[in-house]
Amino acid sequence: MYLADRSKPAVKDSPRRGARRRVASTVVALGTVSLLTDISSESLSAVLPLYLTVVLGLSPLAYGVVDGIYQGASALVRILGGWLSDRTDRPKWVAFIGYALSAATKLVLIPAHGFAAISAIVSVDRLGKGLRTAPRDALIATASDEATLGRSFGIHRALDTVGAAIGPLLAFGILWVVPGDYRSVFVASFAAALVGLVVLGLLVPDLRPRRDSARAAGQGSDPDAAVSSVSSASPVPAPAPSVPKPSLRLMLRSPGLRRLVVAAAILGVLTVSDGFLYLSLQQRDSFAAQYFPLLFVGTNIAYFSLAVPLGHLSDRVGRPHVLVLGHVLLVAAYLCAAGPAGGLGTTILCLLFLGAFYAATDGVLAALTSTLVPTASRAVGIATTQTVVAISRFASSLLFGLLWVRVGRAPAVWVFAVTLFVAVPVAWALVRNLRPAVQA
Question: Which of 299, 222, 273, 255 is nearest to 396 (CA)?
Fold first, then answer.
């Protein structure tokens, strides 16, 4: 019997007990994979801005190009990853390929020094991320009850963020012991990614969303019958109606998804990347280079602390409410980073608001999307909104890097803060009345 068979009854029982149900073991296993992978990626991200601008001597505009690639290259394959996941009904193994591709890039950074080489390596790493993200989130949605999707994604993102906090600490420790030894950071990053890949292959069950949905549909609305269908040892399953294969065209006919995509694009193009905000804080307050990774730690501690509460809040008050609230918190982070004078208190507030922004938007966006599309197109639907966000943030990084060069650090942050403040009501008007789709 698969691990998924044992975990699903714990989350698929009476909706009245949603707040008290245990999260499926599949969600925890995927959270562990993400924890290890984020140790890898965030230890790298924590040193990449300084490595590129100080060690390799790239300009803010050149860093903006690399950061734009880091933010947006995954958009090229996110929908492909979601489509392959839905089409093959094998999200685990599509995700595995993506994780493996990203892991392989970590060691290649060691001999790379030129702008072109760094850009190519970052592109491949982000392509791996794009391939794996939607299938992974589809696995989370498949293993979870719809009434507690926000909580399930919140728990996954919380585990993910533990790794995102450990990664910069690992980089900080290495640079503290051996100042300037960025190669050791790259080796440690590869080791963590490799362990995460092993955990995914051995411990995450091979869930089949379309097949399982068909079986559940064949049992009617009785949850106990659906569980019996999944866990039965009978070699001849009961006949069940077929579930439609994924169709991007049919999925995009959903007015709710279209409105969410437009809102995500508007907000995404006004989202300044972490690296630029941290460089802004570092330039204003003159942090020593070895303390720079701690900025990532502060954000991730806030994210970890708030991911589950805000995910649970989104289940109770509505996911669109929490999604828009997150961008209000991002405006507050911009205001903390824009001023000419800072200090420890202002920096901590900036990191707190930034972490709260991610806690209110990352998992909540995936949870919201998964309710707006049919089960057969769930991964493609999630990939669509994530692709829009990635492309928008790619454009944001290029635009912000250009503004920094032309008008300076503080004016560039102020421009984004004011524009995002104006855009938030527009996004709210688009998403406030979203309704779940009928699940096939």
Answer: 273
